[in-house]
Backbone:
């Protein structure tokens, strides 16, 4: 059980926040480029999933897994997107992301009048609360094997 | 969405505090702008900006997903009014194409203790609410128009807010994609 990193995008694909915990391998490109790449991939997967689905997709794309990590995706009706990379064994990540949204994002970012919508979040309070929340969660283990 | 109705502890305040604060805002604006039209516009704009943020609060409290039709949207707006203003408007007067409906208020908490002076008959006192609905729905990809057709302040029996669906906004494509 471990949490690697978290991206938060808005509906226009702007990277609003990036947080990193147990990330062992870096992409070697700048954060901005990486975010663009990530958003482009999510956008493609989303349209792929909705086109290829043999049944009426309700929730759409939720997560994918490789042999080393899992990418978990939560999109709210307002277009905010939470992308959390964890290891393969973690469970209950959807609820975890929902809680980040309702208890931290809405509370410390949306309700903060000093934050202009559509710009990256610079609030220290949000960052501190997020770190605290992630670290005390059972999902936050020590190290990847 | 998986989680239904997460009850976060909500801070309750007396509605009179809201009513009076709003009244102070409107009267200050009337003094600042001196033109009733400008005040209407500004109130709508303030409401719009509130709606943009309020929708996130609403979504996180109710855990509701996207609406499939306007009737569902109307129900959710009704629920939102109960959550935020503690009034339950009636949804009625559906247009035949069901893209237009009215919200009927028996009481409007914003207009309590308010009487419009004769020379402010053009003032849409609660147009903040219109802006709010417009802003909130825009965040969930719905473009609507919203206006008052009846107002208790102008001597009508009830307050009626008309909401009209304009179009569904499309998802933004990432830059550089063709």
Residues:
């Amino acid at each position: 059980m471990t949490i690697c990193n978290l991206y938060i995008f808005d509906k226009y694909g702007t990277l609003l926040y990036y947080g990193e915990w147990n990330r062992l391998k870096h992409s070697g490109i700048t954060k901005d480029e990486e975010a663009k790449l990530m958003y482009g991939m999510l956008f493609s997967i989303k349209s792929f999933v909705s086109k290829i689905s043999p049944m009426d997709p309700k929730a759409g794309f939720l997560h994918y897994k490789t042999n080393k990590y899992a990418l978990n995706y939560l999109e709210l009706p307002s277009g905010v997107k939470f992308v959390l990379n964890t290891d393969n064994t973690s469970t209950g990540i959807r609820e975890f992301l929902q809680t980040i949204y309702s208890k931290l994002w809405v509370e410390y970012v949306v309700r903060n009048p000093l934050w202009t919508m559509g710009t990256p979040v610079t609030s220290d309070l949000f960052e501190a609360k997020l770190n605290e929340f992630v670290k005390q969660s059972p999902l936050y283990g020590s190290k990847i094997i | 969405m998986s989680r239904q109705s997460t009850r976060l502890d909500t801070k309750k305040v007396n509605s009179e505090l809201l009513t009076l604060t709003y009244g102070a805002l409107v009267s200050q604006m009337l003094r600042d702008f001196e033109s009733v039209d400008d005040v209407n516009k500004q109130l709508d704009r303030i409401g719009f900006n509130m709606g943009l943020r309020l929708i996130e609060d609403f979504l996180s409290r109710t855990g509701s997903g996207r609406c499939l039709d306007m009737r569902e949207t109307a129900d959710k707006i009704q629920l939102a009014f109960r959550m935020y203003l503690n009034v339950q408007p009636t949804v009625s007067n559906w247009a035949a194409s069901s893209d237009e409906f009215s919200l009927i208020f028996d009481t409007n908490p914003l207009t309590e203790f308010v009487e419009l002076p004769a020379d402010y008959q053009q003032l849409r006192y609660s147009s903040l609410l219109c802006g709010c609905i417009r802003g909130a729905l825009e965040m969930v990809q719905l473009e609507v128009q919203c206006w008052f057709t009846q107002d208790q302040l102008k001597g009508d029996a009830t307050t009626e807010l008309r909401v009209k669906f304009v179009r569904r906004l499309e998802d933004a494509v990432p830059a550089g994609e063709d």
